[in-house]
Protein 1
Amino acid sequence: MKVSVIGATGYTGFELVKLLLRHPRLEIAALTSESYAGKKISEVYPALSGLCDAVLKDNDMEERASEADAFFLCLPHKAAMEAVKTLYGKGRVVIDLSADFRMSDRALYEKTYSTRHTAPELLKEAVYGQPELFGGELKGARLAAVPGCYPTSVIVPVYPILKEGLADKSFIIADSKSGVSGAGRKPTLGNSFCETYGDFKPYGIFGHRHNAEIDHILSRAAGEVGAVFTPHLLPLNRGILSTVYLKSQAPLSEIEACWEKYYGGRRLVRIKKGGETPSIKNVAGTSFIDMAAFRRGGDLIVVSAIDNLLKGASGQALQCLNLMAGFNETEGLI
Amino acid sequence: MKVSVIGATGYTGFELVKLLLRHPRLEIAALTSESYAGKKISEVYPALSGLCDAVLKDNDMEERASEADAFFLCLPHKAAMEAVKTLYGKGRVVIDLSADFRMSDRALYEKTYSTRHTAPELLKEAVYGQPELFGGELKGARLAAVPGCYPTSVIVPVYPILKEGLADKSFIIADSKSGVSGAGRKPTLGNSFCETYGDFKPYGIFGHRHNAEIDHILSRAAGEVGAVFTPHLLPLNRGILSTVYLKSQAPLSEIEACWEKYYGGRRLVRIKKGGETPSIKNVAGTSFIDMAAFRRGGDLIVVSAIDNLLKGASGQALQCLNLMAGFNETEGLI
Amino acid sequence: MKVSVIGATGYTGFELVKLLLRHPRLEIAALTSESYAGKKISEVYPALSGLCDAVLKDNDMEERASEADAFFLCLPHKAAMEAVKTLYGKGRVVIDLSADFRMSDRALYEKTYSTRHTAPELLKEAVYGQPELFGGELKGARLAAVPGCYPTSVIVPVYPILKEGLADKSFIIADSKSGVSGAGRKPTLGNSFCETYGDFKPYGIFGHRHNAEIDHILSRAAGEVGAVFTPHLLPLNRGILSTVYLKSQAPLSEIEACWEKYYGGRRLVRIKKGGETPSIKNVAGTSFIDMAAFRRGGDLIVVSAIDNLLKGASGQALQCLNLMAGFNETEGLI
Amino acid sequence: MKVSVIGATGYTGFELVKLLLRHPRLEIAALTSESYAGKKISEVYPALSGLCDAVLKDNDMEERASEADAFFLCLPHKAAMEAVKTLYGKGRVVIDLSADFRMSDRALYEKTYSTRHTAPELLKEAVYGQPELFGGELKGARLAAVPGCYPTSVIVPVYPILKEGLADKSFIIADSKSGVSGAGRKPTLGNSFCETYGDFKPYGIFGHRHNAEIDHILSRAAGEVGAVFTPHLLPLNRGILSTVYLKSQAPLSEIEACWEKYYGGRRLVRIKKGGETPSIKNVAGTSFIDMAAFRRGGDLIVVSAIDNLLKGASGQALQCLNLMAGFNETEGLI
């Protein structure tokens, strides 16, 4: 099966290329870049030299469409919409890593991203690409909207708990911490080394777009949910750890049993018990999500850890394609 | 005024020495160390060479007592108790950085630290050394129990809000993140570079001793309080940032006015407004505490940042002595 | 082919386990540990849970010998010697990551490591396991002495240049910088986070044991060589970059041609040209060695970069086994 | 004495402001910024809030000239030239942190910086502001050219050795490593967190402008010198460590005696003996330069460490003003 990566020179594109090089059933057809077209990807990422020296092509979707069966879109939101329209229209399989098709509710998307959605008709075609929860819908689908990094870290542990009514849906506080690569590769004062090194701080308090995504998806589990979500910037390059505070009367064993029911046998979800704590170090460079629950009285704390670029983006994207193509979901990921 | 630092070779001792070298009204009488007695402190901390080459003395409190008017104790809890008894008994001024005298309730201390308190009679003499809140009691006192680093970051912003009844006392969630120096200088696998670098994780969930200290002090503001406190380990050397979640109907302006009422004119407390966010970078190496409040509906988020070794320990300890000695509280700190 | 890792819980052992899990022709027979025997390796390294949950066995070599065809020894020098004797004596294939068999000259070893060599008869059996230079000797050999991390970074680029007489052998200055993992996993003040973070310094000036190894091997290229080697400690976890200063009249093209002659077609050696500079980032997590040469007048600068735990240890060790077993040398490494 | 900082919002400007706030004999007249004029400096650097909330003025030198007696110029080279002309012409004292007046040889400057020098007549007025070596010339001077960060780390230890003929002037290799702040505050891909974190590499091999400055100044000690200088980028924010390789027959004691002769009694130079090694950690945040010498046969290694923003820039600049104004050279620096 031939796949192309559109926007291959950002951090998620780079991760996808490394994953694809290892995948036994996928072959890279084309890698594209707006800014580096004509250069080798190994000139942009010398780490790839000798492994992948493909010359980057431009983003002419008409041309690109003819070259591959499936496409990973690593484009900014808005730009992704247009590319999806073209590729999906030509019958291709599309895995979109942007936010453009994550919300089935057009108005919510337009409000959250303050922009018009130009392909609303495709919203109902898109499957929210969190494979452990919505994998069933992925089989046979042609358009996957890969979840945001923060939402992945919150939704995977919390969705089943709400769905099973094991916690108070009116009380969800997600305190999340992410590495700097989440801000992308474009240099800004905010992601420059000297401004970030030795620092730690919250940002976008009560205003981060991923809050809307978290609420939108969790509402599918328990109806109208409004979580408090606070992102923080960690002085490390990759990884997200979320500490989620819930109110619950259920014993820990019941929470863990609930997770087993939803995730038993899903290798990329690792449930930690007996007080073991998820840690970014243990998932960095992998597509695992580690999670654990802790309880005292009515207070339930759920901790999850992922690599924001893998389980939070490229790894989960490939996991989606594996399911859409009928492969083993962990193919090329473990 | 002559002061000695007992246990000068740990990180808090090192910070105290640097502060004392700059203080216009204090003179270092003696620096002590159990493990390095006989060596120069500048051999242990070459950064001090040319600034302070004093030879470290041992911890014989009888001898030490005769050398200075005031003493900073940077000893582990339990060891501190004994030293305090001797020094206080000889009429000295004692600033204890350990946990031994932070709780006026003996039983609570003994339960929390699973050890017998051998100087219970001094508990009522000890003043909880958070100068902005309890500075009045410090004037004339001879024994100050310097607050823990995490409690400082939580109590300073939250105490006034509870005291004024501006938030629901039954709902306090403090998600705190600290640099590695909080674990002390003794090498362990947990604070070794390769285990900590690029990592981030919570620890001691529902079991950290500082939770008891936070509850104990906040209860003085609002009666019986039980906060949820979760510490995390940041991959940086110094600084604590706490994100505290409260429920409140009070407008932001009222929260900020409340802080102004308690802290107006106190230079080491910096209240951030208009969406400005506290950040570890802005307080590292200083004795400031920066704090800000954010509100959406009934959810109130309070963020604070301190240097765990300064406002969270040595800086606050010196601030205590300044007040006990009748100096300006910021002397040698700004 | 069944392989065991003796001393699997150190950082090099951990890297070997991850490599072996990906190797198509090797099966893990046993993992051992002195200190953690009886525990699962995934309890020591939670990153492995779900990937390898083998229970660690002890270091009883008599028993271990019967379980596998080949053995990776990740033991301290001296301890390795004894294990090698047993395993080699029983006809097993042994890849020793310690220094015990790197020097064919017993006296030099004993002087450098101030200890008696208790298996001198095996020194002549041992092949210095730098596959690109001595791969020919590895085929059919049963004992490989994997080079030290620093020596690998210096010898690979410099050996051919000296061998071809393209630089003055009396003038070799290697300024090397290594990440903290080179110091091993045992916690010490020197590798604790707060002592290392934000710091950089040389150590063991004129006294590092790897200097003797570098001289010993380079002497095979040009007879009696005495290099100046200075190691430095970098505030990062993995990687070594060496900047080597030589005197040469040869044009750059000739240096690069010499490298092509020795390393052309060897995938793990990447020769950078046109001013491209090796960088730790580009080799971290891989078994590549990147190298480049720069010239001004008679001054030749050679820069190399490796991952100290992979090309500098476990990756190169597996590369040795691949050749000893007749596999493709990059099997499981790319 | 009233001083202004021109270009106060770069990292060197920020450091100067912090130093000036502590200086007993200097008062800040104005702080300027091209890009932030009209804002408070504490909006650009919140760390300063409550310490310095001055509103930034523009760079109109005619106006600025009338406000202060002395000026620190933290401008890019070329821009500095023009400002110096105006301020010096009006009889002000000028401390220029740029490269514009470091080289007394106009042609060399123009070649090195590929630009015309528009104030050549002032080159002979300018004193190279390395106070320990050229402090005598600073007394009474009105224009100081503060040395580059790398040159400071190399020249201070090496100049006396060459001057006294204790090492071979034809053989100087300086392998230098600097923190990221040396690259300035302007965001670029090269100084972004994710590109720098966990990385280490050399840059500008055989082409860095500081090589010309080093040669130019060292030539004053020993006539025509051509050093090999290689800068590297460290994954930390501040500090430079230089490892300099020389050939010498002089015993170590003679090297150390030579340093004592030049630097005895100069508090900011700390000579390490008995194998103690300079380390960035020990000088970060200070204006010290630590240095030590090591010898084996004819090989002499000199190691120095400074904070690139202080002894390598702002601290040394203030040290210059202290001498030009007749103050104690360490005033406000210790």
Note: The first helix of chain D runs from residue 11 to 22.
Protein 2
Amino acid sequence: MNRRKLLKTAAGAAVASTAIAAPAIAQSAPALRWRLTTSFPKTLDTLYGACDMFAKAIADLSDQKFQISVYGPGEVVPAFQVFDAVANNTVEMGNSASYYYIGKDLAFAFGTAVPFGLNTRQMNAWLAYGGGLDVLNELYGTFGIYGVPFGNTTAQMGGWFRKEIKSLDDLKGLKFRVGGVAGQVLSRLGIVPQQIPPGDIYPALEKGTIDAAEWIGPYDDEKLGFLKVAPYYYYPGWWEGCANGFLYINSAKWAELPKLYQNMVTIAAGQVAADLTAKYDARNAAAIKRLVAAGAQLRPFSNDILDASFKATNELFAEVSAKNPKFKALYDSTIAFRNEQYQWHQVCEATYDNYMIRRIRA
Amino acid sequence: MNRRKLLKTAAGAAVASTAIAAPAIAQSAPALRWRLTTSFPKTLDTLYGACDMFAKAIADLSDQKFQISVYGPGEVVPAFQVFDAVANNTVEMGNSASYYYIGKDLAFAFGTAVPFGLNTRQMNAWLAYGGGLDVLNELYGTFGIYGVPFGNTTAQMGGWFRKEIKSLDDLKGLKFRVGGVAGQVLSRLGIVPQQIPPGDIYPALEKGTIDAAEWIGPYDDEKLGFLKVAPYYYYPGWWEGCANGFLYINSAKWAELPKLYQNMVTIAAGQVAADLTAKYDARNAAAIKRLVAAGAQLRPFSNDILDASFKATNELFAEVSAKNPKFKALYDSTIAFRNEQYQWHQVCEATYDNYMIRRIRA
């Protein structure tokens, strides 16, 4: 708590960087303090917790010499200014979702998820062994940022609806709290996308100002209580077959960081990222049971809705690709990788999973 | 190469431990050399490579002070004596598959995979957040070993068959190179399980001494060339919906290890484990394409075979549970976790994956 108070006290002063300058003499393990600001509030304890876990890992690996202080949205900068705060060196590092920054370039979407894109394991494979991370870092590099993958929330749900959505016609005029690329696709199907901060979603759904809202998945959604006012819980969130987070690091600060500390950041981020997915898998499975027991009505999106969304996605992406070479490079890479992955996935993983699902239902 | 020669030169001498003794005065980062022996040969470059990657990570995190030398099967001990070599402190650490040691207790199977068990992500979630690792470490602890998860090969294929297997009757008398728990289940269906070292499988298949052989998945299987003599490539390997590897550490050596180095081991193993799965996903997808192009005939196991195998598995596990409380504790934990996971998986992940598979086929 004192740290937060200190921060507020220092708020008027120049707080560009709290890093303790390394002495001119090369020192492989200097005392160092960095700041990490995240887009995710403490209430999203899985995502926020990954930042705490990372900071602890770095301290544990460096014998407490390299300390990272974690700040939530609004403590240093607002949630959606994390990328810029890192680029400007207001903080040395930040945790955010790449697709929050599609205003800069729609290509940013590929760092998190695109509609009908990769699933969680495919995303990890693409980033590490499909050239994905390299192409993304070329993009981030033009903003003075170096990105390290920081964990995946897994396939997300399609959101909470006040009424059942039985066909494509039911989407016309529907006010849906949904952001980013999904909003752009869905507007082609007649939906009116709404941008509403998390804290305002519940009253908007209750009053009927909006008809539906998507958030993340069972564990995170449960806390916002949408169930009471919009009980139809649709799946899958085809715009987020996975959602990958990033740790963004100021490129100049990264270059200055002793190699030993660079190794710690890379290795700890890899461990924290894997842990995040394990945590989501464990918690979501328990949460969906509680939600259904409390009255959530699970509904799959109909095939005509999925097919029309798939078509609209391909049309949008073809249009953007024709004009934006950075987008096209990432799109072509993602889609080629996705198609090859699903050709394999259908053989072994899907056959195994589908058999197990059939047995457990029986 | 010199390291290997040195090892052979020293082979007659006492080589119980090459660790440089830490001075009596507490020292958080002493110079230290440990040995890691793995069950997996260099030809399995994905698995062996994980050991090299781990050793490099530990060196990189410790400013080269903590060095780990990696040895393949036969260099220090044979492949299936890794666990005992660690328990006896012949080496400080080893990499192996828990189910190689079901001769000690069938409960060891749960550390790798059991028939109709967890998939890859579910295994990670169970180990970290389902209590799985704690229960496994109680078991390993009775042998003086501490285990750290070390990566998953993902769902494995069902193996290469000389002839098509169209129904349950085709299994009767079939000589199948398959090990462990799967062999015990399959023998209840009339199969005659065979234990053959990797290098002898190809000639045995060619001569017809055996009718079929399972190994791992497309990337690893491709190298052994089974395609030419047993072209029917069956899926899924329902006895390995995933296959988790372990890093085994001598408990006394672990207790002596400075906390700083313990942190490095835990965090680096987590990163290496996640990387292994990403590597398998990328490589298997490319390999299955090559195998099919070269003539591999993909075949799913028929439902009557899967159903009979599922039934035989449940019967075997109920029998063992009645006599073996350690097995029962791990079985009950695994199955409860699996059932909850698949109830969630069927909603979001499977619906998304199955839709994508349908689109990509179209």
Note: Chain B touches chain A through 78 residues (CB under 8 Å).
